[in-house]
C-alpha cells in the first residue's frame, strides 16, 4: 500500500477514535468527595461507615461564625436579633436537618409531666442581659461552642443531609450568603467552615486552575517549540499529538466512570508536558537527517527507527512510574496513577502513528538554516562534552558533596498532614477555619465509640462514670474543647428535673436516683441530641467532640496517650471503646504513605534495572543508569527537608513520578548508544557521538518538562504547588546529571567489548 494512502487511512481511523473519546470527555464531571481520601479497604473505614450509619457522619455540618460589631459584645439585643433571624432562615432551608444557635439554646426544666425550655438569652428584654450573660458563662457547653470566650463572636451550627453533593450544597451556601448580605452583615464579619464549604471551593478552583494551567502550558511549550524548530509544523504537530493524547486519556477515564478530582485534575497538564518527549525526539532526528541532505522519506524512516526503541522504553518507564501510584490505598491517587499511565502509553501510540502520517502528507519543509555543513548544536554540545570530561574529577566531587548534604537534609523530612493541607496559609477558606480554632472549639472532629459490656446499657451508672472519666481526660490532657456523650444527656436530664439549677448538672449519686432519672428520659428521647449520642436501646453510645487541627503527627501522639489511658484506666469489663471518625481515617493515610512511596520507587527502580540489564547485559551499566537518576531525587528530598516541606498525600507522589519521567532521557541516551556501538569500535567515540545526537532532544524536552511543571507553582493548592516545584527541580537537576555524570560514569564503568560489533546499520548521519 502506498505510504500516502496508508497515512490517509491512519488519520481517518485516529479521527474516529478521537471523536469517540470526545463523546466520553463531554460527560466528564468534577468531583470533590471528602470520603475518597480515606484509605480504601482499611478495616477502620468499614467500621466508621457502620458507625456513621448508626449515629451519622461527623462532618456533615457547617459552622457560621458571626462577629459582633466593633466595640460591642454578642449580648447586644440588635446583634442577637440578627442571629435569631439568621437561625430561623437557615432552619427553614432544604437539606438542613438541625440548627444549634445561641438564640435557640435553652435550659430544659421538668415540671409535672411536661418539659419547659427556658431560653438562655432574651434579646427582647435588655434588662436581663447581665443575668443572661452570667448564666451563659456558668453553663457547660455554651462558651467555646456557641459563644466565644471573649463574647465577641457566636456560632450557628447547622447539620446537613448526609454526604450532601456539591450542587445542593452550593445552593444552600449561596442562600446563606445572600441572607447575610440582605441583613447588612459584611463579609469580614462572618466566617464559614465545614466539609461542604471546602468541597465547594475545591471544585470551583479545580475547574479554574485546570484552564489556567493548560493555557500557560500551551503558551510556554509553543514558545519553546518555536525557538527549537523555527517552523510552524514543528510547533503545530507536537501540539496536535499531545492534545489528542490528552483527549484520549480523559476519554478512557470518563469511560470508566471516574470524575476529575484534586489529583486527576493534574492529568491534562502532566500529560501535556510529559507527552512532548517522543514527538521532540522524532522531529529532532527527522530535522537532523533532513539537514544532512537525506530525503523526506528516508529521514522519517531513520527518525522512527532510531527513536522507536528508546521512545517505547521511555514510555514504558514513565507509565510504570505512574502505575506504581496504584499501590496507594487512597482512591484519587490510585486513579491518577492508573489513567495517567494509560495516557502516556496512548501518547506513544499517537506519536508513532499520527505524527508520521502528518509528516508524510506535508511537503518537504524548508529549513531556516542550511544544515549541510553540520549543526550549531553540535558545536555547543561538543564543547560541553570536552569540558565535562576535562573537569570530571570536579564534577564527581561536587556531586558527592551535594549528595551527602542532601541525604542529611532529607533525613529531617516529617510525615505530617492536616485537614486543609492543600490550602495555603493565607487562603480565605483556611483563615475562616482558623477563626473557629481561635475563637471556638475548633473544626477537627473527634469520635469514640462506646460499647457497654454484654448485659449493660450506656445508661448504667458504672458505664456513665467510666465515660465521664474518659471525658475528663479528653478535656484536660487530649485537648478537646467541646465534648458530648450519654453522660451529657443524663447530666442534662438531672439538671432539668431539679429546676434547671447548674449545681445539679452532674451524674446521679446512686442506682436508685439513676432509675428515677431513666423513667423521665423518655420525655427527651425524641430530641435530636439523644438520637445522635445513644442508640434507642442503650446498647451503644457515642462520645463526640471538636478540637483544633493539630496535624497528624501531634494527633498520633495524642492518640497513643489516649489508648494508653483507655488500656490502663478504663475497665473494659464495663465499657469498651474504639477510636474512629473521619479525622482518624485521614491520619491513618500517613501510616501507609511511606510504605506506598517506598513500594512505588522500588517497583520503578526494579523495572528500569531489568530494562537496562536486558539492553546491555551489564550490571555495571545498570548502576551507571541509576546513579544520575537517583541523585536528583535525593537532592530534591534534601530541598524538601531544608524547606520544611512535610510528606503528605499530595507530596508523596512526587518521587515516583519524577523518577519515572527523569529516567526517560537516560533511556533515550543509552538506546542510541546501543545503536552507535554496533558500528563504532571506540567507546569514547560512541559516547561522544551519542552525546551530540541525543543532547539537543534531552535539553529541549527537559526545558519543556521543567517549564510545564513550573506552571503548577501558580496553584492556590499547596499540594499542586509542591508537585510542580519539586518535580520541576528534579528534572532540572536530572538534565544536569544527564549531561555531566552520565557520560563520565559510562566511560569509567562500562566495559565495551569490540568483538560484539555487528555489521553497520544504515547511516545515522553526521
What does this molecule look like?
With 766 residues, the chain is α+β, with helices and mostly antiparallel strands. It folds into four domains: 165 residues, no CATH class; 144 residues, Multidrug efflux transporter AcrB transmembrane domain (Multidrug efflux transporter AcrB transmembrane fold), CATH 1.20.1640.10; 210 residues, Multidrug efflux transporter AcrB transmembrane domain (Multidrug efflux transporter AcrB transmembrane fold); 135 residues, no CATH class. A hairpin with a 2-residue loop joins β3 and β4. The strands form three sheets. Strands 2-5-1-6 form a four-stranded antiparallel beta sheet, with helices on both faces. The chain has a four-stranded antiparallel beta sheet with strand order 8-9-7-10, sandwiched between helices. α14 packs across α22, α20 crosses α21 and α22 packs antiparallel against α23. Its main location: membrane. InterPro entries: MMPL_dom, Mycobact_MmpL, SSD. It comes from Hymenobacter perfusus. Keywords: Cell membrane, Membrane, Transmembrane, Transmembrane helix.
Amino acid at each position: 500500500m502506498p505510504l500516502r494512502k496508508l497515512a490517509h487511512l491512519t488519520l481517518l481511523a485516529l479521527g474516529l477514535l478521537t471523536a469517540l473519546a470526545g463523546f466520553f470527555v463531554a460527560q466528564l464531571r468534577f468531583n470533590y468527595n471528602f470520603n475518597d481520601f480515606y484509605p480504601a479497604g482499611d478495616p477502620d473505614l468499614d467500621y466508621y461507615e457502620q458507625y456513621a450509619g448508626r449515629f451519622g457522619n461527623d462532618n456533615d455540618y457547617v459552622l457560621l461564625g458571626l462577629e459582633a460589631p466593633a466595640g460591642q459584645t454578642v449580648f447586644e439585643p440588635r446583634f442577637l436579633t440578627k442571629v435569631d433571624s439568621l437561625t430561623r432562615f437557615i432552619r427553614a432551608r432544604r437539606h438542613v436537618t438541625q440548627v444549634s444557635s445561641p438564640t435557640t439554646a435553652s435550659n430544659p426544666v421538668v415540671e409535672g409531666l411536661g418539659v419547659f425550655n427556658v431560653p438562655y438569652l432574651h434579646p427582647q428584654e435588655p434588662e436581663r442581659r447581665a443575668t443572661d450573660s452570667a448564666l451563659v458563662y456558668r453553663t457547660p457547653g455554651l462558651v467555646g461552642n456557641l459563644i466565644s470566650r471573649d463574647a465577641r463572636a457566636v456560632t450557628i451550627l447547622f447539620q446537613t443531609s448526609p454526604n450532601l453533593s456539591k450542587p445542593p450544597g452550593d445552593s444552600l451556601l449561596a442562600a446563606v450568603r445572600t441572607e447575610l448580605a440582605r441583613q447588612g452583615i459584611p463579609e469580614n464579619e462572618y466566617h464559614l467552615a465545614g466539609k461542604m464549604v471546602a468541597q465547594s471551593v475545591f471544585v470551583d478552583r479545580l475547574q479554574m486552575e485546570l484552564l489556567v494551567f493548560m493555557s500557560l502550558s500551551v503558551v510556554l511549550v509553543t514558545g519553546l517549540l518555536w525557538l527549537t524548530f523555527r517552523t510552524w509544523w514543528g510547533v503545530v504537530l507536537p501540539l496536535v499529538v499531545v492534545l489528542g493524547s490528552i483527549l484520549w486519556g480523559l476519554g478512557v477515564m470518563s469511560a470508566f466512570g471516574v470524575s476529575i478530582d484534586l489529583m486527576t485534575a493534574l492529568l491534562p497538564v502532566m500529560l501535556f508536558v510529559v507527552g512532548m518527549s517522543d514527538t521532540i525526539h522524532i522531529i529532532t532526528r527527522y530535522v537532523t537527517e533532513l539537514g544532512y541532505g537525506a530525503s523526506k522519506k528516508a529521514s522519517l524512516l531513520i527518525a522512527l527507527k532510531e527513536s522507536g526503541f528508546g521512545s517505547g522504553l521511555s514510555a514504558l518507564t514513565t507509565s510504570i512510574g505512574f502505575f506504581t501510584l496504584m499501590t496507594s490505598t487512597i482512591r484519587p491517587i490510585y486513579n491518577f496513577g492508573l489513567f495517567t499511565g494509560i495516557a502516556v502509553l496512548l501518547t506513544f501510540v499517537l506519536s508513532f502513528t499520527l505524527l508520521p502520517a502528518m509528516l508524510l502528507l506535508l511537503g518537504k519543509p524548508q529549513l531556516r538554516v542550511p544544515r549541510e555543513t553540520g549543526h550549531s548544536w553540535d558545536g555547543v554540545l561538543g564543547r560541553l562534552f570536552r569540558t565535562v570530561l576535562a573537569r570530571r574529577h570536579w564534577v564527581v566531587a561536587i556531586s558527592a558533596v551535594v549528595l551527602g548534604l542532601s541525604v542529611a537534609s532529607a533525613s529531617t523530612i516529617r510525615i505530617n498532614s492536616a485537614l486543609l493541607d492543600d490550602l495555603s496559609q493565607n487562603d480565605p477558606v483556611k483563615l475562616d477555619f482558623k477563626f473557629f480554632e481561635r475563637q471556638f472549639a475548633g473544626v477537627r472532629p473527634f469520635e469514640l465509640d462506646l460499647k457497654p459490656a454484654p448485659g449493660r446499657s450506656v445508661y448504667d451508672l458504672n458505664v456513665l462514670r467510666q465515660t465521664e472519666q474518659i471525658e475528663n481526660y479528653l478535656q484536660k490532657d487530649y485537648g478537646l474543647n467541646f465534648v458530648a456523650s450519654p453522660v451529657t444527656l443524663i447530666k442534662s436530664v438531672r439538671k432539668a428535673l431539679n429546676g434547671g439549677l447548674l449545681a445539679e448538672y452532674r451524674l446521679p449519686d446512686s442506682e436508685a436516683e439513676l432509675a428515677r432519672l431513666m423513667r423521665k428520659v423518655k420525655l427527651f428521647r425524641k430530641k435530636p441530641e439523644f438520637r445522635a449520642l445513644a442508640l434507642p436501646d442503650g446498647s451503644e453510645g457515642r462520645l463526640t467532640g471538636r478540637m483544633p487541627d493539630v496535624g497528624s503527627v501531634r494527633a498520633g501522639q495524642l492518640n497513643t496517650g489516649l489508648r494508653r489511658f483507655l488500656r490502663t484506666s478504663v475497665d473494659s469489663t464495663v465499657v469498651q471503646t474504639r477510636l474512629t471518625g473521619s479525622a482518624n481515617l485521614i491520619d491513618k493515610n500517613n501510616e501507609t504513605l511511606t510504605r506506598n512511596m517506598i513500594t512505588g520507587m522500588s517497583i520503578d527502580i526494579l523495572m528500569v534495572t531489568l530494562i537496562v540489564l536486558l539492553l546491555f547485559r551489564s550490571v555495571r551499566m545498570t548502576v551507571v543508569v541509576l546513579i544520575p537518576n537517583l541523585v536528583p531525587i535525593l537532592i530534591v528530598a534534601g530541598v524538601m527537608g531544608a524547606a520544611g516541606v512535610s510528606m503528605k498525600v499530595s507530596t508523596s507522589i512526587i518521587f515516583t513520578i519524577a523518577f519515572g519521567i527523569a529516567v526517560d532521557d537516560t533511556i533515550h541516551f543509552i538506546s542510541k548508544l546501543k545503536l552507535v556501538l554496533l558500528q563504532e569500535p571506540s567507546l569514547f567515540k560512541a559516547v561522544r557521538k551519542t552525546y551530540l545526537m541525543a543532547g539537543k532532544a534531552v535539553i529541549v524536552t527537559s526545558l519543556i518538562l521543567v517549564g510545564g511543571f513550573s506552571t503548577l507553582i501558580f496553584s492556590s493548592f499547596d499540594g499542586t504547588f509542591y508537585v510542580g516545584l519539586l518535580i520541576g527541580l528534579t528534572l532540572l537537576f536530572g538534565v544536569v546529571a544527564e549531561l555531566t555524570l552520565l557520560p563520565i560514569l559510562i566511560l569509567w564503568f562500562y566495559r565495551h567489548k569490540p568483538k560484539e560489533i555487528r555489521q553497520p546499520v544504515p547511516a545515522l548521519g553526521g
